[in-house]
Amino acid sequence: MAAKTTDPLETLRYPDRVNYANGVLLDENDFRAEQAYFRGRLGRALAYLHGFGTVAGLKVEPLPTESHVLRVTPGLAVDRLGRLIELQAPYCIRAPNWFATQNGDALAESFANSAVNGGPRAVVADLFIGFNTCERGMTPCFGADNADATDAFTADRLRDAATLDLVLRTQPENDKPRQQAPYETLSAGPMDVATALAELRTFKIETAWRESEFWNSASGKINVGNEYTTRQNGTEVLLARLRLPAGEGPMQYDTNGALEIDNHIRVLRLSTDELFWLIQATREA
Asked: What pLDDT does 2 receive?
């Protein structure tokens, strides 16, 4: 069975590289620091040059054979630390089973606050995908702490994997949090090229650097935004908002109702080819 391990990139780090010299004794901390440096530099480049969000795939849809089973298709995302989150095989979540594990009062609150323009009510939840590191295989190693020095084992490999998290939303419909990409703080609506370039230049110089807001310098941990719960670490990527059919007295999942999925709430990340196509397709004739 794969075991979860802590990722060093989830704590505030400085870009220190290992300094090699003849005669210097290297241990496991040096090799871990080497990996963390290069992973951290790559992550920083991806986070600032491309941003977080869905890169490809990861569609959330009902399973064709079971309408109340969610299926997430394979795909790729970039999280807030610039880590690549890759789902290589479809992943399924049974909505009624998840519903049964939730607090009844919280379900009732979500249901009561879910009406849109007087329409039908439902239990609202958001589906996130997050980066996960899993230990794979076992190999002998020198013992540490209370382990027998002649009979100790450790993971042979660390695999970059994904984890999915369904988060119940209890806020009124108009107040439900959503992830906002940095560019969404720029002005909306059409404008001339000179005005747009001037605003973008100001944004890049004055606003684009986000580290002081992202990290808590006192704790060395990430400042978790209001779109996350306390059990999340603040790097997960939102994939979809769900409206789960339910009935009151007491709260129960309605298997005869329709499961609604909004994939458009997510933040998208475009490749250079996609951006080129978009510019060509939307430019004035």
From this structure: 46
